């Protein structure tokens, strides 16, 4: 029995390390792809997109929203590690559909300072995908925006629906 969840993680890593063999995969993604998606624990990103380990950079946050930090990660991914394609994937049933900017105010009330970041909540998946697409396509820090596409994953069917 574990005292904490992080104790369980450490024990899980010990099992993993016992069977692990260095695959010597390069740090550069084989498919030259970066995926921006939600941190939702229900999303098993690699099999969901037909990818294998080493194929793509996976960038996750609450909602899969393109934020300033996502632009930072994509810039490093493109400029230093050779990615060229970007797939933005939101999903049905996302918790960010139920959050509002009031969350930020409640944090400020609780801790006495305002978070420097926006919550980036949204009420419409497709509109937010379009906004994220625009942020990627217009960022001066990203050098390759020809193969940038956005999708909504339907959790019930497992299918991607492209947002144009």
TrEMBL record:
Q: What is the superkingdom listed in this entry's lineage?
A: Bacteria
Instruction: Write down the InterPro entries for this protein, in alphabetical order.
Output: Carbonic_anhydrase, Carbonic_anhydrase_sf
Annotated positions binding Zn(2+): 38, 40, 91, 94
Note accompanying the cofactor annotation: Binds 1 zinc ion per subunit.
Tell me a Gene Ontology molecular-function term this record carries.
carbonate dehydratase activity
Keywords linked to the UniProt accession: Metal-binding, Zinc
Q: Which reaction does it catalyse?
A: hydrogencarbonate + H(+) = CO2 + H2O
UniProt EC number: 4.2.1.1
Q: By its UniProt entry, which Pfam families does this protein fall under?
A: Pro_CA (PF00484)
Name its co-factor(s): Zn(2+)
Q: What does this protein do?
A: Catalyzes the reversible hydration of carbon dioxide to form bicarbonate.
The UniProt entry's sequence similarity note says: Belongs to the beta-class carbonic anhydrase family.
User: Could you tell me what this protein is called?
Assistant: carbonic anhydrase
Species of provenance = Mangrovactinospora gilvigrisea
